[in-house]
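Support case: D-sorbitol-6-phosphate complex. Customer-provided input:
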Amino acid sequence: MGDLPFVFMISSPQIAPTRFDNHITRTLGSLRGHFLDENAYARMLAKGDVLVYEVYEVHRPEVPGELQVGMSIVHPGKVGSEFFMTKGHFHQVLDTGELYYCLRGEGFMVMQTPEGEVAVEALAPGRVLYIPPRWAHRSVCTSRQEALATFFVYPGHAGHDYGTIEQDGFPKLVMEGAGGIEIIDNPRWRKDR
Ligand code: S6P
Ligand code: ZN
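Agent response - structure generated as follows:
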C-alpha cells in the first residue's frame, strides 16, 4: 500500500507550514561570493552572521512521480545595495520545472537558462510563477519589513546543482538604486569561468 494523503496549512498566522521534515537556515556566512559588493559583505559579516533565508521542506522520496513541497522565506535586508536573496540553482535533472506561489512580502525571481536567456518576474501575494524545465532560479526579497514567503512544488527527482551558479552568477542583479528598485546587468556574470 502507498502513503496516505495528508494535509497541512501554509496560511496559518505563523510563517512556517504546519508540517515539515527539514528546516534549513542560510546565514550571511554561507553566501560568500554570491553578492556583488565583497567589501560590504565582509563589513556586514564582521558585525554578525545574520539569517538571510530559510526553507521548510516536506521530504518525499527523490523519485519521478513524487513531488517535493515546502516554503522558502527570504528575510528583508541588503548587502551594500543588493537585496537579500537565495543562492539559486539549476535542478540537477535539468528537464524539471517548478511552481512557486507567493504568500507574503514582495520581491523577484531571477531566472536563466544554460544558454544565457534571462527572465525576471515580480513576486507578490497571490502571484503564481511557473518555472519551466531548464531555468535556474533565485528569489530576492525587496520588501523592507516583511519577509518574502513562497510555497514551492517541484518533481521528486529534480535534485540541485548549486555549482554552476556559484561560478557564473545570474545575468541580472536586484539592487536599491537612487530611484528605487533597479534590475541591473551583473558585471561579474560568467567572468570567473
Ligand atoms: C528547490 C526550490 C526551493 C529553494 C529555496 C532556497 O528546488 O527552488 O526550495 O531550494 O528557495 O533556495 P536555494 O537556491 O538555496 O536552494
Ligand atoms: Zn528549485
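The CA atoms of residues 26 and 53 lie 5 Å apart.

Case will auto-close in a few days if no follow-up is received.
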